[in-house]
Amino acid sequence: MTERDLIPTARQSRPRTYLMCAPEHFVVEYAINPWMDTTAPVDTALAVKQWDALRQTMVDLGHTVHLLTPQAGLPDMVFAANGGFVVDGVAYGAKFRYPQRADEAAAHRAFYESRDEYAFVAPTQTNEGEGDFAYLPDAHGGIALAGYGFRTEPAAHAEAAEALGRPVISLKLVDPRFYHLDVALTVLDDENIAYYPGAFSDASQRVIAQLFPNAVVADEADALAFALNLVSDGRNVVINTESTAFAAKLTAAGYHPVLVDLAELKRGGGSVKCCIAELRP
Ligand code: ARG
């Protein structure tokens, strides 16, 4: 082995387009995942400040950030990743599991329908957008990964495959703490992922290992810190400040972690990725 073989490949970033929504109305007044505690007070102003630093980080990295207008009465609207799943200009819409979030879908739909670069496909099956769908353009010719077990119905995986014309690999989530795919698995670049095996059924762990033999593996402490709820542009990996141990693993794998504090939003059961939908116009 030469010295060069020991140096991780230089990672390349690619400019991205994102959709976010400020947590102006963020509170925890209902509990639909194990992280939400309706008795613990939320500092909405702090949430807005932390969210805005995240938005500015994405802009400073050279990415385009579109914004949705926050709506009173939709406290989880800040978790914009759940509003759709876009691949090559086709936006497969969301249909939320719980009635408390149902009205968010219309705001996302209006965004896609107002812009020429997206063709909106209305869903008939329950699915929470990029909360449970991920896309890798250069893995196996372009595949989507999809979670089920808590929010998104497997029938929506088939509906997404039909809408997007891409293989969709169904993965079963088994730990309620990791109720969405995006808190258990993340896309690091166009062909590779990181994941926490314990969040998945044994069979799904075998599926993931077969498709992604070079995946970066997270442990339970990483997953509990929401380390996997990150957003990567292929090189810069925006990840929350609680996840320093996992950030070190990413550095060792040749990525460049960028840490942001989103502690207040964790009270809703989300972190970096939950706040950011990637648009692929
Ligand atoms: N409180 C929200 C819910 O339970 C959090 C959603 C987090 N979003 C995500 N993409 N994981 O639906």
Main-sheet strand order equals 2-1-15
How would a textbook summarize the main sheet? 3 strands, mixed
Class by helix and strand content? alpha/beta
* Shape designation: globular
Rg estimate, integer Å: 17 Å
Seen as an oligomer or otherwise, the chain set is: single chain
Per DSSP E runs of 2 or more residues, the count of β-strands stands at 15
- Helix residue percentage: 10-25%
The percent range for strand residues is: 15-25%
Bound molecules: arginine
Q: Give me the strand/helix succession.
A: HEHEEEHEEEHEEEHEHEEHEHE
What are the segments in which pLDDT stays under 50 over at least 5 consecutive residues?
none
* Number of helical elements: 8
Terminal-residue CA separation? 42 Å
What do the pLDDT scores average to?
97
